[in-house]
Each structure stands twice: as C-alpha cells, then as structure tokens.
Amino acid sequence: MQSPTLIAGGNRVALPASRGAVCLICAWRSRRWHAWFPVSSADEWKFTMAVQRRGNVKTADTSIIEKKIKRGIAQRQASSYRGYTALVLALVGTCALLIWLWSIWTNDIMDTMVSRGEILTQPRVFVVQCSEDYQKYKQFPGCTPTKCGRAVSDSVVTTDEAQILRRIAERGLELGGSDGGASILDLHSGALSMGKKFVNIYRYFSNQIRDIFTEEDFELYRAVRGRIQRVIAETFGLDSSKLYLTKPTFFSRINSTRAKTTHDEYWHPHIDKVTYGSFDYTSLLYLTDYGLDFGGGRFIFMDPNSNRTVEPRAGRVSFFSSGSENLHRVEKVAWGTRYAITVSFTCDPDYAIADPSLP
Asked: Where is the Fe2OG dioxygenase domain (predicted)?
C-alpha cells in the first residue's frame, strides 16, 4: 500500500502508514479557521486543482469592491457626458448669439424690393415719410421733396442702350482705374480714378480723347439723363423744368479688389443729402446684371425694421429722394464687375451743372 500523504497549501507531506489510507487536508484560510476533509491519494490531483482554482473564486468583499469600482467608472462616464453636452450647448449658444448680433449690426433682414429676374413695365414705388433734412436748406416750391420715397423702373433705358453705356465706361476706365475695388469716370468734370488719386481725363489724355469717345456716345448719355429726369419728376409730382443735374454724376466700376484708400470703401451706409448738401434726388442706372456679371453689389435701403434691396439689372433705373429717409449702402461685390451710373439732381439752380460735351 502506498503511504498516505497530507496536502497542505499545495505541499505534499508523507504520513506514517499507521495513520491508514486516509489523510487530513487543511482547506480554508481566509476566515482563520480550519476544516479537515478526508481524501484518498487517488483524488490528490483533483483536489490540488480545486485548491488552485479556489484563488479565483470571488468573495462577497470582492463583489462589493467591484461594484464600487463599476459605479465610480459609470459616474465618471456620466460626468464626462454631461460636460461634453454642456460644452456643445455652450458652443451652439455662442454661435447663435454671434449670428444674432451680426444680423443686428448689418440689419440684414432682407426684403427684395425688385429682383433681377423681374421686368417692370411701370415704376415700382415705395413711399416713405420725408425727413427734416430738407428744412435746413433753401426751399424751392414744386421741387423740394414733400413726397418722399424710392422707385425702380425698367422702361426708361433699353438693354441695348445700357450695353453701349457700359462700353463707354469700359473704354474710359481702361485708361486708369483705382488700385482698390472702386473706380469712377466723370464725363462732366473729367475726373478719372488713377491708382490712389484722380486725374482729369480731358487733360491727361487730350490727344487721345476722340479715339476713346464719340459724339454719339455723348448724345446717348445726354438723352438717357433727360429721360431719368422726367421719370423722377413724374413719379414725385415735380415740375421737371425746376429739377437740375448736379455733381457728382459719374460712371462707377466696382469689383472685389481689396480697398486701398477711403475712396474705395463704397459699402458704408450713408445719406446723400448729408454727404452732398445739394442733392435732392438721386438715381442709379445699372449697366450689368446681379448674379450674372457679378455677385454681391445689391443696393440696400436700410429701414428701421428691415432692409429693402434692389437687384441690379442692365437698363434698370433706381431713384429716390436724397434725405435720411433713404439711408442706404451698396453690398460688397464678391466676384465679377459691377458697372453703374449715378445721376444726381438738385432743386437749387446755383448747384446745377451742364451736360458733358466732347472736347
């Protein structure tokens, strides 16, 4: 007979045979008490494996600790999620606030007064209350604005005429042009943008002027000016003979080039009567199309509760009383080139200017 052995803590200890075929095993330590179990030597291997596996058995204390760890991890994850959610909400709120402030600053709640795609057969008129600006100047009954507003017409100048006028502007401005995004050509005074200054086109290019312009160019210019004057008088109930052309009246070319001087910063809100005291009525004849020839560049009337925009169209005439009831600006041109003519009128004959003529 094989001598019995004692397995204790994974160690085998031989016992005297007198003890018989039975051994006693110390099987539990964690509670500081001992339970003795009889086993035969044939079951030694199985018991040894059981004792080794017993080290992986979870006790009640271990389960409690694991639960606490899991609870802590869950709480940290929940805290991280709440922090992330708060950050996202804060960012969204900040963006919304910035957008709101920007819309307040630019007053860009837009109402389109006339879109480019529309073709008006009759002037579209929007009446506004006259400001007190005109009371600061000499009054001219039958002309000084008492009925104020703004209007747009597509029946004063034809598309073909607008194309000819555009070519006049292009030929003249090819001789110079601003370093920035806004250039002018004034056929009355001869002023032409040249770099960061202005030159007199009739003096600077006196030998070439008749190669650049023709008598027919100036005849068309004068005829268009007369038609614009008449539609203003009819719309506002004026005596056309009491309305006079005034300065500045000029071609403008605007593109997206960065401004180099204050003369290039055409986009600022302004009031014509404040800028030029002689102005009583202002008009613009557009020579290119919004959305086709250029982007941006819309004409914006800035009213207290919203903006009203005019989308340029070749041959379209926009005109309005020049006081603070018609605060306005031009949207920055984003791409392409915008051509127009500003034609200005006064009721004061002392500020009248003559139609231009070819030298």
From this structure: 247-348
User: Across-strand partners of 14?
Assistant: 5
Q: Are residues 248 and 312 in the same domain?
A: yes
- In this prediction, residue 81 carries a pLDDT of 61
Tokens 């051994």 locate to 23
Q: Per the domain annotation, does 359 fall within a domain?
A: no
Catalytic residue status for 31: no
Same domain, 134 and 183: yes
Dihedral angle sign, alpha carbons of residues 144, 149, 155, 161? positive
Whether residue 357 is contained in a domain is answered as no
Query: How far, in Å, CA of 32 to CA of 159, rounded?
Result: 108
Strands 182-185, 244-254: pairing is antiparallel
Token digits for 295? 């982007």
* 356 cis-preceded (ω within 30 degrees of 0): no
The first and second tokens of residue 160, run together, are: 């073909």
Say yes or no: 171 and 234 in one domain: yes
Q: Which bin fits 277, alpha (ψ -120 to 50), beta or left (φ > 0)? A: alpha
H, E, C per residue of 106-151? HCCCEEEEECCCCCCCCCEEEEECCCCHHHHCCCCCCCCCCCEEEE
Residues in the chain with pLDDT values less than 50: 1-2, 6-10, 13, 15-42, 44-48, 50-51, 53, 55-56, 100-101, 103-107
Measured CA to CA in angstroms, residue 266 lies from 181, 184, 216 at distances of 9, 11, 31
Q: What distance in Å separates the CA atoms of residue 316 and residue 309, rounded to the nearest whole number? A: 13
Residue type (1 letter), 248: P
pTM greater than the 0.85 cutoff? no
- The DSSP bridge pattern shows strands 244-254 and 338-346 to be antiparallel
Contact 316, 226 (CB under 8 A): no
Domain tally, the chain: 3
Which element (helix H / strand E) includes 200? Answer: strand 197-200
Q: Convert the pLDDT of each residue in 297-334 to its tens digit.
A: 999 999 998 899 999 999 999 999 999 999 999 999 99
